[in-house]
Amino acid sequence: MTLKIGVIGTGMIGRDHTRRIQQVLAGAEVVALSDVNLASAESVRADLAPNAKLYETGEALIAAPEVDAVLVTSWGATHEPYVLAAVAAGKPVFCEKPLATTAEGARRIVEAEVAHGKRLVQVGFMRRYDAGYLALRQAVQQHTGAPILVHAAHRNPAVPEAYVTPMAIHDTLIHEIDVFRWLLDDDYVSARVLYPRNAARSHSKLRDPQVVVLETKKGVLIDVEIFVNCQYGYDIQCEVVGEAGTARLPEPMAVALRLDAKRQSSILTDWKDRFVASYDVELQDFIAAASQGGATGPSAWDGYAAAVTSDACVQAQESAGQAVAIELPARPALYE
Ligand SMILES: NC(=O)C1=CN([C@@H]2O[C@H](COP(=O)(O)OP(=O)(O)OC[C@H]3O[C@@H](n4cnc5c(N)ncnc54)[C@H](O)[C@@H]3O)[C@@H](O)[C@H]2O)C=CC1
Ligand SMILES: O=C1[C@@H](O)[C@H](O)[C@@H](O)[C@H](O)[C@H]1O
C-alpha cells in the first residue's frame, strides 16, 4: 500500500519533508499540498510532486478523500487547529514542533486524541531518531550509572532579526526539553534562566546567549547553553555525568585534516545537515505506523509535556534567576 500524504505548509521544512517522501523514503507519496502562500505550494508541486492537488486551505486538504495522512509543517501558531481537524477526521498526523504554542493548546490535542481512543499524532522531535542520541541513551542505560548532571549546548551560527528572547525556548530549546525527558526517562520539576552579558552580535530584543537550568524529578540537574548567534557553526553538545562515568554525544562525522601545521575538521553550519538522517528515519516511522492507521514515536503527550516546560522556561526568562515550578497532570493510559 502507498500512503497518500497531504502537506500543510510548504516552507523550508515542508519542502524538505516533501522531498524526502518523494525521493528518499518508501511507502508514501505526496498527493496534496496547501499553504497560505499558494505560490509556495505551487512551486513545491512543480519541483517535487507534480501529481499533487493544491488546496486553498489546510482544512480542505484534511477533508479530501484521497488524503490518508497529514503532515503539518506550517508556522507553529497554526499547528493546533490542523492537528485537531486531522484527529477529528480520524487521520494520522505528523506535526512539526511545537505541537501547539501554549500548554492549553497541546492539552486540547491530548484530550481529543484520548477521546478518539487511539494514537494518531506524532510530533517532529527528530533527535529521538538520531544515531548519536540513541547511542548516548544506550551508554547511559548500560554504563554511566544513574545520571546526576547533564551539560548541554545548542548553538546556531546566526538567526534573523525577528528572532527574539522567548524564541530561544519555543523554537530552539524545545528540542533539548524533549530529548532529555526521553534520554533520562524522567520529567522536570523546575526551570531557571541565567543571562551573562549580551553577545555583541545580539540586539535589544534578544538575550543571547542564555543558560537554562532544569531540575528533574529524579534530582538530575541539566544546564543548557543556548547561543543562537555563535557565528562559528551549528553545534549540538551534550554530556551526561553519572554515578560511574560520563557519556558524551558523538560529534557528527568529519574528515580529520592535517594541513598547514594544524589538525582540523569541519563543523556543520545548518541544522538540516546535522539531523538529515534523523528526519528520514522519523518520517519513515510515521509512514509505517500511519499505513496501519495509527501513530508511533514522540506523542501528543510528549508535545504537551514540552509545551508545559517551555511555558515555565519563558516565565523563568522573566523571573531574574528564580526557579519556576513545572507540574504535569497524570499521564493518560493511552500514553503509557
Ligand atoms: N524539527 C526541526 O528541526 C525543525 C522544525 N521546524 C518547525 O517547522 C515549522 C515550519 O518551519 P519552517 O519551514 O522553517 O518555516 P517557513 O516559514 O519556512 O515555512 C512555513 C510555511 O507555512 C506557511 N503557513 C503559515 N501559516 C499557514 C497556515 N495557516 N496554513 C498553511 N500554511 C501556512 C507559510 O506560508 C510558509 O510557507 C515550524 O513550526 C518550525 O518550528 C522548522 C525547522 C526545523
Ligand atoms: O528546529 C530548529 C529551528 O526551528 C530552530 O530555529 C533551531 O534553533 C534548531 O536548531 C532547529 O533544529
Major β-sheet strand ordering? 12-11-7-10-9-8-15
- CATH architecture title of the largest domain: 2-Layer Sandwich
What is the class of the largest domain in the CATH system?
Alpha Beta
> Which descriptor suits the 3D outline?
globular
| Uncertain stretches of 5 or more adjacent residues | none
| Largest sheet geometry | 7 strands, mixed
How do the SSEs run, as a string of H and E?
A: EHEHEHEHEHEHEHEEEEEEEHHHE
Mean pLDDT: 97
Radius of gyration, taken over Cα atoms and rounded to an integer in Å? 20 Å
Q: How many helices?
A: 10
Through-space gap between termini? 29 Å
Number of domains: 2
β-sheet strand percentage:
15-25%
CATH topology of the largest domain: Dihydrodipicolinate Reductase, domain 2
CATH superfamily of the largest domain: Dihydrodipicolinate Reductase, domain 2
Structural class: alpha/beta
Number of β-strand runs: 15
Helix content: 25-40%
Bound molecules: 1,4-dihydronicotinamide adenine dinucleotide, (2R,3S,4s,5R,6S)-2,3,4,5,6-pentahydroxycyclohexanone
Domain Gfo/Idh/MocA-like oxidoreductase C-terminal: 145-319
Domain Gfo/Idh/MocA-like oxidoreductase N-terminal: 3-125
GO biological process, one term: inositol catabolic process
Pfam families: GFO_IDH_MocA, GFO_IDH_MocA_C
